[in-house]
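Table S4 entry, KTSC domain-containing protein.
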Amino acid sequence: MTEKTEIEMVEVVSSNIHSVGYDATENVLQVRFHGGALYRYLNVPENVYRGFLEADSAGRYLNTEVKGKYEYQKEG
């Protein structure tokens, strides 16, 4: 079992998403919601994370580019 790395999170402007972060070594995209839930999306290319930071709507980007395309683990 691999130890989880602390991922630096970046706040985004969104009514639903608090912050996102990326671990380039493990290819993990981490998304924290305002309610406190944390999702770790696995095997995500770095360009998807960069797209998240550049998106006009973080919530829309999550729904169209991430959800349903990558395995995830829910924490918290």
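The helical segments are 46-54, 58-66.
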